[in-house]
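Whiteboard transcription, Tuesday session. T.W. wrote the C-alpha cells on the left side:
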C-alpha cells in the first residue's frame, strides 16, 4: 500500500494559497525563496497533520498518545521543487488560519524523508498515513508514519538525537528523546 497523504479539512488548501498570493502581491515575504518566487508557479503538496508534544510529555514517559493535533502543514513548491512550508492552526471554533511560512532545513528534510519513506518495505504490507510530530523544547521534528498495526518515526535533519532519515519504532525514538530530555532538564 502507498504512503497515504491525508485530506486536509475542506477549504484549507485554498485558504493557504490565497494567503500565499496575498503575501506575494504585497511583497510581504521576508524569506529569500518565497520573496523571489513567481506567484503563478507556487503550488502546495504533501499535506500532513502536525502534532506537538511538550517536554513534560517526553519526561513523563513519552508516547504517541500524548501528541496533540496542532494544525496542518503543506510543502510549497515552485516549479515542482519544494522551497518552503506553510502551516495552519485550528482555532477553537474549528476554523483554520495560516500561521506561518518557513524555509530552511526541515523543508528539504521533509521532502527527502517522504521520498525515502515511499520506498520502505513496510509500506508494502501496511498503509501509513503521513503526519509530522514536533517537540519544540528539544528542537525535534519527525515524520510520523501512522498505521493501525504499528507506527514509525523518521527524525528530520537537523536532529538533536541524530538518526535523521532513519525510520524508528516509537519505543526507540522515545528512549533516545528521554536521554536528551534528561540532559535538558538536569539542574546545573
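and on the right, the sequence the group agreed on:
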Amino acid at each position: 500500500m502507498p504512503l497515504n497523504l491525508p485530506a486536509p479539512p475542506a477549504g484549507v488548501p485554498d485558504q493557504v494559497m490565497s494567503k500565499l498570493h496575498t503575501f506575494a502581491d504585497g511583497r510581504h515575504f521576508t524569506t529569500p525563496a518565497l520573496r523571489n518566487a513567481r506567484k503563478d508557479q507556487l503550488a502546495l503538496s504533501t499535506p500532513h497533520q502536525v502534532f506537538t508534544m511538550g517536554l513534560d510529555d517526553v519526561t513523563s514517559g513519552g508516547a504517541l498518545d500524548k501528541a496533540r493535533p496542532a494544525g496542518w502543514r503543506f510543502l510549497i513548491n515552485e516549479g515542482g521543487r519544494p522551497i518552503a512550508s506553510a502551516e495552519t492552526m485550528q482555532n477553537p471554533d474549528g476554523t483554520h488560519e495560516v500561521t506561518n511560512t518557513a524555509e530552511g532545513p526541515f523543508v528539504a528534510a521533509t521532502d527527502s524523508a517522504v521520498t525515502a519513506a515511499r520506498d520502505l518495505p513496510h509500506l508494502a504490507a501496511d498503509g501509513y498515513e503521513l503526519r509530522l510530530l514536533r517537540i519544540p523544547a528539544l528542537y525535534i521534528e519527525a515524520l510520523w508514519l501512522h498505521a493501525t498495526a504499528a507506527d514509525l518515526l523518521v527524525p528530520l535533519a537537523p536532529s538533536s538525537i541524530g538518526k535523521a532519515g532513519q525510520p524508528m519504532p516509537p519505543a526507540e525514538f522515545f528512549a533516545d528523546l528521554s536521554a536528551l530530555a534528561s540532559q535538558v532538564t538536569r539542574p546545573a
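Someone added at the bottom: Strands lie at 3-4, 42-52, 68-78, 81-90, 96-102, 128-135, 140-146, 152-155.
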